[in-house]
Specification:
The complex is a heterodimer of chains A (234) and B (210). Chain A is of the alpha/beta class and 234 residues long. Helices cover 43% and strands 16% of the residues of chain A. In chain A, the strands form two sheets. Chain A has a five-stranded mixed β-sheet, sandwiched between helices. In chain A, helix 1 packs across helix 5 and helix 6 crosses helix 7. Chain B contains nine helices and five strands. Chain B is α/β, with parallel strands linked by helices. Chain B has two domains: 79 residues, Methionine synthase domain (Methyltransferase, Methionine Synthase (B12-binding Domains), Chain A, domain 1, Orthogonal Bundle); 120 residues, Rossmann fold, CATH 3.40.50.280. The chains are: A alpha/beta (234), B alpha/beta (210). At the A-B interface, helix 4, helix 6, helix 7 and helix 10 of A face helix 4, helix 7 and helix 8 of B.
């Protein structure tokens, strides 16, 4: 709605997850245009929904961009009283880091047992599978081992997404360490800012969900049918 | 005789992984019937489900509970098969194509098994054609599909279509479950029911075979 002269980009307010926010900053979003929510909220979609609803209500009137995907349905039911609400048509933030949902699906289909990891996730949640120590404390080593084994048993690859951020090598090393410790093959796959750039540029084609003022996001809006995928050639 | 029924139930609820098989063997030696002990284990598991619902247990606790049940079933199963237990029906269980998350699927499988169903577990990342083959070769009356990733929900529709194409859909009830499933999705995919947890899954499949 409100365009400013700055690089032709719409100046809509942004609400983003902490792990996505860092990528957005890299793409030139000033801190005062963005509300950053903590990463841990994604564990409980209802908590995340509530937090997003509160931040949307607090945001300045106008369009709002979400730095989130569907995120286990956390964004469904959200609406904006002050303008449009826009989000990438993605399942979660992995598509945001890889540059498209198509690339996310391609990577997942080539190896369904892929555990994706980024610098932001390591920062927010600690070293990969850090919670193992917490489990040992809670259950003792034998039971903790069983829980972790069950949780990871079908994963075969740890894919670290290289988004080219500052100090990426340090985090790549941490990811590799985690992979080795839990017997996963380690791979680095290239990230891409393409989808987030499109979000910022207002290039909201069918890779985005855009709802008018007061219209709620529904899960249907985010899902892609088998037919769409085939037509897309992926 | 010691009250093994209460002890077993409490030990399952308290996630006593190492103790449960030992306790079960002791109880069997003391003359307790395997099906009575199985019922006690299921009661313990149901209590875990309630503790999860009330927020006292986390997913890791349920995972551990599933492992306790698995180890316990290993002790009891040979004796149960020799007994007079009759199957309530055959259910093909799997995590859909493209998805490898199986904690929920395994919990449902364990609960169905311990509730008297014949369970054919196809594992994870399962092609629709494999589900059709398994339904046909086992004469299954129901299918349980698990999916965590929203990116893979179309795989549910693929199974429904494949069963229809094989002319089996009318004789098979399908239920879905998993973190991303909603009533809206169940309707969109054309399945018969949605289960929110393993306890509800048992109720659903009992109603399917009623």
């Amino acid at each position: 709605m409100t365009e400013n002269g700055h690089g032709g980009r719409p100046s809509a307010h942004i609400i983003a997850c902490a792990v996505v926010a860092e990528e957005l900053e890299k793409l030139g979003v000033p801190a005062d245009r963005m509300t950053v929510l903590e990463f841990g909220l994604h564990v409980n979609p209802d908590d995340l929904k509530k937090a997003l609803r509160e931040e949307i209500a607090k945001a300045p009137p106008g369009d709002i961009l979400l730095g989130y995907g569907l995120c286990s349905g956390a964004v469904t039911g959200l609406s904006n009283r002050g303008g449009r609400l826009i989000a990438p048509r993605a399942d979660d933030c992995i598509a945001l880091f890889l540059g498209s949902r198509k690339e996310h699906l391609r990577r997942l289909n080539e190896e369904p047992g892929t555990y994706f990891l980024t610098k932001g996730w390591i920062e927010a949640a600690g070293q990969p599978f850090d919670s193992y120590e917490e489990l040992v404390e809670k259950y003792g080593p034998v039971r903790a081992e069983r829980v972790v084994k069950v949780a990871l048993r079908n994963y075969t690859r740890l894919a670290f997404i290289d988004t080219g951020l500052y100090r990426i090598d340090e985090y790549r090393a941490l990811a590799k360490e985690g992979a080795e410790r839990f017997g996963l093959r380690f791979e680095v796959i290239p990230g891409s800012g393409r989808l987030l750039e499109k979000l910022l540029d207002g290039a909201w084609d069918d890779e985005f969900v855009v709802v008018e003022q007061d219209v709620e996001f529904t899960m249907d809006m985010f899902l892609v049918s088998r037919k769409d995928i085939e037509q897309d050639g992926s | 005789m010691e009250d093994y029924v209460v002890k077993v139930k409490d030990a399952v609820r308290d996630l006593e992984l190492e103790e449960v098989p030992v306790m079960l063997r002791e109880a069997l030696d003391a003359g307790e019937a395997a099906n009575v002990l199985l019922a006690a284990m299921c009661d313990g598991m149901a209590e875990c489900g309630k503790l999860f619902e009330s927020g006292e247990y986390y997913l890791a606790d349920l995972v551990l509970a599933g492992e306790v049940m698995k180890d316990g079933l290993e002790v009891l199963e040979p004796l149960l098969q020799a007994g007079e237990t009759r199957s309530k029906g055959t259910v093909v269980v799997c995590t859909v194509k493209g998805d490898v998350h199986d904690i929920g699927k395994n919990l449902v499988g364990t609960m169905l098994k311990s509730s008297g169903f014949e369970v054919v577990d196809l594992g994870v990342d399962v092609e629709a054609s494999k589900v059709v083959d398994a339904v046909r070769s086992n004469g299954a009356g129901a299918v349980a599909l698990s999916v965590l990733l929203t990116s893979m929900v179309n795989s549910i529709g693929d199974v429904v279509s494949a069963l229809e194409a094989a002319g089996l859909r009318d004789g098979v009830k399908i239920a879905i479950g998993g973190a991303c499933t909603t009533d809206e999705l169940a309707e969109r995919m054309g399945v018969d029911a949605l289960g929110r947890d393993a306890v509800e899954a048992v109720r659903i499949f009992e109603s399917f075979f009623a």
